[in-house]
Every structure is written in C-alpha cells, then in structure tokens.
Design brief:
Blueprint lengths: L16 H14 L19 H10 L8 E4 L6 H9 L3 E5 L10 E6 L10 H4 L1 E5 L11 E4 L3 E3 L3 E3 L16 E4 L5 E2 L8 E2 L2 E4 L2 E4 L4
Parallel strand pairs: 1-2, 1-5, 5-8, 6-9, 8-11
Antiparallel strand pairs: 2-3, 3-4, 6-7, 7-10, 11-12
Helix pairs in contact: 2-3
C-alpha cells in the first residue's frame, strides 16, 4: 500500500467551518464584545456597536436608495431593522414559527417601526408566503443576513443552520454586519455564502472580488 501523501510544505492545515465558528465566538466572549444571547455560541453574535454597523450599512450608496429589504430575524439585526423601518423602508422578516411546504417560507411584511422586535411582528406585520418562482418577494431589492465570520473578499460563514444558512439564492445582493473580531482577509474554511457589502461599526467594506 502506498504511503499517504504528506501535506504540501508551507500550506496551512484545512480548518473546518465549525472550528472557525468556535474560534470567533470565543474571541468575542474574551473581548466582552457581544451582548444577549450569551454565550454567542450557536448564534449570529449580537456584537457591541451593532447599531452603528447597521447605520453605516443603510447609509451606503448601494443601500440608501433601496425601498424594500429582506432582513434576518437575529437580535444583532434588530437595530438595523428599526433604523430601516424608521426611514420608511419596507422589510420582509422570516416568520420562523409558521410551517410551510418545502422550499416555501412565510415572512412578515413590515412597515411599522414597532415591527423591528420579533414579539411585535404578529401585531403589526402582514404574513406573506414566498413560493419559489411564483410569488411573495417580488419587490425585495437586497437581503441582510447575520454572520459569524466574514472574509474581506465577501465569503460569509453563518451559524450553520436555519434560515439563510447557505444564503438565499434569490438573485439579490446579500449584505451582512460584522464586528472587527469577526473579520479576516479570507476565511480559513469553506464559505456558506457570499456577500457584497459588510457593515462594520466604523464603515462599510465592499467585497473585493464581487
């Protein structure tokens, strides 16, 4: 039997996505850079200054003129949802407790700033069923997803499960928010999806290869 081929010298060992997620979650905890839910493990981290990151993203020239966004239900995106609704932007937020057939997703269509909070969505939101190729989100112009780690080239690593785990695949620009500790020049592992813009507390990064 032939001996196994040794790894090429100078190349780092491959990193599993789960390993990198754990690394980022631990780094945020050590730096006390995230808020509830704690610990951040298993979540898209609700990092400190997420509101500033959301404000930066919404003010970017590629986003500021949009009137309808899909936005994830994560707590880290709640400030962005509120800012967008206050600015008159219509949002679609996934209604994760309402079952749908495979490939279909229920969303809340929101225009009231009170709808930024998940608990208020049933009171002020309109349920909309997205059916691939048929109906639901025709007026959406971009989507904002939560992340665990992001490369400056636009490679995104999510929490590994749930809505938008592998991106949405709707042919829309996908965007995200990130704390500096969540950023790297390139992910050391396979990406879940790719984003065009990364909102940070200090500005917006345009993905370098997209």
């Amino acid at each position: 039997m032939d001996a196994p081929t040794p790894p090429s010298p100078g190349l780092p060992d491959p990193v599993l996505p789960g390993t990198h997620r754990e690394h980022v979650w631990a780094a945020l905890m050590r730096a006390r850079a995230c808020a509830y839910p704690l610990p951040p493990h298993g979540h898209h981290p609700n990092f400190t200054r997420a509101r500033q990151a959301g404000r930066q993203l919404l003010a970017h020239p590629q986003v500021s003129g949009l009137h309808t966004l899909i936005v994830g239900p994560d707590r880290v995106l709640a400030p962005l949802r509120k800012l967008a609704l206050e600015a008159g932007v219509t949002l679609y937020v996934p209604h994760q407790k309402k079952p749908a057939q495979r490939g279909q997703v229920w969303y809340w269509r929101l225009s009231d700033p009170a709808g930024a909070r998940l608990s208020a969505m049933p009171k002020v939101g309109e349920p909309v069923l997205y059916v691939p190729g048929k109906s639901g989100l025709e007026d959406a112009q971009a989507a904002v997803l939560g992340s665990v780690a992001v490369g400056r080239d636009g490679a995104r690593l999510g929490k590994g499960f749930g809505w938008g785990a592998r991106g949405l695949g709707l042919g829309l620009p996908e965007l995200t928010l990130a704390h500096p500790l969540m950023l790297s020049s390139m992910l050391p592992c396979a990406a879940d999806s790719h984003v065009a813009l990364i909102g940070t507390p200090d500005g917006v990064l345009e993905a370098s290869t997209l």
